[in-house]
Design goal:
Strands 2-1-3 form a three-stranded mixed sheet, sandwiched between helices. A two-stranded antiparallel ribbon has the order 4-5. It has two domains: about 100 residues, Glutaredoxin (3-Layer(aba) Sandwich), CATH 3.40.30.10; about 110 residues, no CATH class. Helix 1 crosses helix 4. The N terminus is likely disordered. The protein is mainly α. Helices cover about 50% and strands about 10% of the residues. It comes from Trichinella murrelli.
């Protein structure tokens, strides 16, 4: 840099020990890489990573006590309240970060993500599997008119979306988190901005169990069923709904700190 050059800094402050920070870091690095690719000769803006474990004095100098945080340092160094990105309002996606940077610096950054071929390949394999099954069953396609089959498929799609599988597809979170220092395994991310893949599987199973409980309650109203089966379906359905829904509330309380309601479990 030449003496007298004016430039801004977009700095991401984090602690690499926390998995949520690594997710935001990945999005931040996507924006930084996009800026380098589209503004190769520009010296208006620099992207910086500051890890508390390696540069704690920077945090103390700037008076930063809460992380993660993305901070814009203007060329003149006069920080304003708007120079701190609000994740709750804007989100943590690379597109949101690029938009916020544009608002603070007037620098347009087209977000360029690396290509991910896993989705198209999986879709192609699924289509090949379906086509193969239809070809093998070409002499008898009566199962396509089975209401139970289509109802089951509809429920599977519903459970997948309710549990957050689309979020996993977009964000590519880790399967779970293992703290290398303490050796502790974490399957539920504490907070609303992050989730693990195994967490979504558990949530999907919870929704399946609750649905099964309601199906048992509906079957208990069938007048053609014997009284003993009716009582069994009713008790099993009520027990399944109450117990599993209590566990769901516990998971919700873990994600949303301060949520006041619970049923059976803390």
């Amino acid at each position: 840099l030449d003496a007298g050059d004016l430039f801004g800094i977009v700095c991401f402050f984090l602690n690499s020990d926390y998995i949520l920070f690594s997710v935001v870091q990945d999005e931040f690095e996507v924006v930084a890489s996009s800026y380098r690719f589209t503004n190769m000769n520009s010296k208006r803006l620099y992207f910086v990573l500051a890890d508390y474990e390696e540069a704690g004095e920077v945090f103390h100098t700037l008076g930063i006590s809460a992380i993660p945080i993305i901070l814009h340092v203007p060329p003149r160094g006069n920080l304003k309240r708007q120079d701190k990105m609000d994740f709750q309002r804007s989100g943590i996606q690379a597109e949101a970060i690029a938009k916020w940077v544009h608002e603070r610096t007037d620098v347009v950054i087209p977000v360029m993500r690396p290509p991910n071929y896993a989705g198209p390949v999986a879709l192609f394999l699924l289509l090949m599997l379906v086509c193969g099954l239809l070809y093998m069953k070409r002499s008898s396609l009566d199962f396509l008119y089975n209401r139970n089959l289509w109802g089951f498929l509809a429920l599977c799609i519903t459970f997948a979306f309710l549990s957050g599988q689309m979020w996993n597809h977009i964000r590519s979170p880790p399967f779970f988190y293992h703290n290398p220092k303490t050796g502790q395994w974490t399957i539920f991310s504490q907070g609303t901005q992050m989730q693990f893949i195994v967490e979504t599987y558990i949530v999907a199973l919870i929704y399946m169990a609750i649905t099964m409980g309601f199906i048992l309650l509906v079957d208990a109203t069938d007048t053609k069923t014997s009284s003993s089966k009716t009582r069994f379906y009713a008790y099993a359905g009520i027990g399944l709904v109450v117990i599993v829904f209590s566990f769901l509330l516990s998971v919700f309380r873990l994600k949303y700190r301060g949520y006041p309601y619970r049923l059976l479990f803390p």
